[in-house]
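Table 4 source record.
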Amino acid sequence: MTQTSRLQRRTPWHPDGRIMWVTSIPFGIAHLVPLLAIFTGVDTRAVVIMLAFFWVRMFFITAGYHRYFSHRSYRMGRVAQAVMAFGGTTAVQKGPLWWSATHRLHHRYSDTERDPHSPIHGFWWSHVGWILAEASKDPDLREVSEFAEFPEMRFIDRHDWMGPWFAGVLAFLLGGWSGLVIGFFGSTVLLWHSTFLVNSAAHVFGRRRFETSDTSRNSLLIALLTGGEGWHNNHHHYAPSVRQGFYWWEIDTTYYVLRLLSFFGVVRDMRKPSDKVLTTKRIDRGRPARSEERLAA
């Protein structure tokens, strides 16, 4: 019996799974730390740090953890891969192997009993409950064997605490206590719940363009918060795409940055949806003319 099977038999991917209350205490405390701004104050520098830390770390999650490690929607060298992996750990969402292995299970079993975070078990569960459950502790790393074979990747994943400490110390050096409380902890909480919305709200609210076997939906608001991840129905229709906003009017800032990096050779072989992908299983009304369906250059 595989590790994943044992976990699912003992603590299934649903609200009946046992919550790890003790190990979840730091997660709860982190939500309270920004309240210390009552004592530290909030200056302009702290706000700038908060915004910068939010968007930079969001990019590492969306471009790295999600589009690269989970879906291999583009390629990059081993050094850039390690940098992307370490950058992702600063977002305090565990290691790259854990994150991508869990996400691949989500796509394989989307909105079924074996989906790690489906809203069919309730909005709260899909948003945050599953993270606190015992079943989320040890995904089978064979799901991401192509990355787990690199020793530096296993090291970064095993020592995923280094990224948060690096980011926290940097925030303190740049902005003092206010920089730490607001710049690091404040942006971390905002980052958590913005990305969590993709698992919860993006399966409940929004529009469906493509017929998929799950409840994924497209949401402009979530896309703006997450660098383009809100085009979730697009993504579930064709997950290998480096671009989740399929059309020029669907804002996808993660893709824009990746495309910029491609000009410098940092990333390459970016996968995009074909015309056939764009026209298959369309269920939305008011479908744009074929000339308007072209992806932006």
